[in-house]
Amino acid sequence: MNNADRPILTLKSTSQGDPIDDRPIELGVYDVLLPCRQFAIDHKVAEVGRVSLTAEFVLRLLKSVDGMSEDDVAAFFGFDRRDMSFVLTEVETQGYVGRQDGRLWLTTIGQALFRDGSSHPEIFEVERRQETIGFDLVALAPQDRRFLDDFERRLPELKLIDPAKASSATRRVPDAFRKFYTEITSRREPSATPKRSLYSIDNVVAQERFSSTVRISVCSTGLRPSIAEPDLSDWRPEYEREDRSLIIEAASRFVEELKVSRRADDRDAYQVLIDLAPEFLKDFTRRDGLSAERYYREALARAGDVRADRPTVPVLGSLFTRENTRRLFDIADYGMRAVSEPSTLCVWIAPQTPFWGATNSLPAILAQIKTRILAPAAGAPGEVENATIGLIAGKAAKHIEMAFDNIGTCDAPSFPPALEILLAPRVLIAAIVNAPIGLPNGAAVPLGLISFDERVVARAQAYVVDRIASFSISDEMCGKIRTDMSNSILQADSDVGPA
Hints:
This protein is an alpha+beta fold. The protein has helices at residues 53-64, 70-77, 81-94, 108-112, 163-167, 169-179, 181-188, 238-241, 245-257, 266-276, 292-302, 322-337, 361-372, 398-403, 454-467, 475-486, and strands at residues 24-47, 68-69, 97-100, 103-106, 126-136, 196-221, 229-231, 259-261, 285-286, 289-290, 312-316, 346-349, 388-393, 406-410, 419-424, 428-435, 441-443, 445-451. It starts with 23 loop residues before the first strand and ends in a 13-residue tail after the last helix.
């Protein structure tokens, strides 16, 4: 055999993924508030394009030295005969210039262009206007004002890159208005944009502050899952983001604040996954617990559609991403087929990660759970009341309080800090560990499973019921949770996780 024909033997890479799997990963989605302010701007606009810039300079020259010879005008500007003929045709057609004895004179109409003794001809018809324009206080770029609901008003706010510039925004608005004038007018008067130009800015008055939302997708890659960057493509198109680089910088700083450190009790969180779905995770279970990096590679390769014969699927990334939200409700549809009596509540255990749930996807998912999964409460036909329960370590953030019907808090919960569980009794369970992968510090990589398997759901119910009493919820609600979760199709067949 020729040496060139011999196969080359190589060792399989022990890194977190093969190069072919170094695909983009969406770790999470956040909606943050962008501080903005409205400004009343007095300005003038003028019709453009009636004469060329060259013709304007000829008019200004004749205003200074009226009666110049055609040859002197041509020499002054360096025109040849063809250029001179073109310019004179333009100004003569408009009636601004007349010829006499080889000399050029401003006509009465041409003289009238120079109003109030100005040396600049007012070629255009000038119109005074006042517009109220919203600008963000980070990049000082135009931002439309829209209504924010109660949840959105409680979202975290992007931090200012330069607070001093924000405080002097009124002084800086004229330059920003000039820079973005085309963008502003194209939205407000699309047909007038090519016909009008900004003539002057006369006065700027700061008005009320407001906030807008910016959607930030936190993205990484298969080989470096805990090194994350912001993606703002859902917020604005690329050509607009180029003029808002300071907002991109502020978003990068926000992503930096999402970093967490690997903890010793992350192993307890991964152990809960094993205890909930030992059959599904048997190939990734070692003597010391779950092989998180091996399971990560499997989730990266296998994440796909849900099927009836696949009751448990791996999940990579937050439940708030589009793909995982779709996957969650695909699981819910299968789970509902086997349920004769849906639950009247769901429980969501939040992980102890920065800004968890700071996205419009949280109330949207809870609303879908109410309409697609939960049964109406007794005595309230068609209406689900007090159905969504959030269990939070420490003090709940304002946006979380607004999203859930009920909040239970606990200073020392018996859940591992990295663990997140969404449980709709008898229907589905989503269990996710939010911890760095491959690095001691970095972005949390949500890794777990979603299941409608009756055994997995029953184990999750037993796990939650055993720990619910430590949270600050009423005895009535605690009893309702216990009762609802005791009506399982199957009883849990083992204890789950550390007490």
